[in-house]
Specification:
single chain; mainly beta; five-stranded antiparallel beta sheet; three-stranded antiparallel beta sheet; 8 strands; elongated; Uncharacterised_ApaG; ApaG-like; ApaG_domain; Protein ApaG
């Protein structure tokens, strides 16, 4: 088994959702778009997700669940899938990181890591 047989790249992009936030009540809403690309040689299906969401005070919220936004995308080599979701913090910034649990068509299960990314209110709003 070569390492490049099972490879999923995950690219996150996050932004502050001012109209859904209430800064006076310490409610900061962020949306994030995730792009998942199968850069490996085997088709694979996303089974579940695992997130660690950390606010500016170091409080960590762990989220586990099946699929993403109610779906279990199946990606052939070269295919991609995108979705939009969100997170709410009680601080004006925080981070997210995690992984997707994948299953290749040959039955091999593997993790697709999601590098840490920043959730932050733009400085203009401070």
């Amino acid at each position: 088994m070569s390492d490049n047989q099972y490879r999923i790249e995950v690219s996150p992009a996050a932004y502050f959702v001012e109209e859904q936030s209430d800064v006076a009540a310490d409610r900061y809403v962020f949306a994030y778009r995730i792009r998942i690309v199968n850069t490996g040689q085997q088709p694979a299906k996303l089974l579940s997700r695992h997130w660690l969401i950390t606010d500016a005070n170091g409080h960590v919220q762990e989220v586990r669940g099946m699929g993403v936004v109610g779906e279990h995308p199946h990606l052939k080599p070269g295919e991609h899938y995108e979705y939009l979701s969100g997170a709410t913090l009680t601080t004006p910034w925080g981070t997210m990181k995690g992984s997707y649990q994948m299953e290749a068509d040959d039955g091999t299960r593997f993790d697709a890591p999601i590098a840490e990314f920043l959730l932050a209110v733009p400085r203009v709003l401070h």
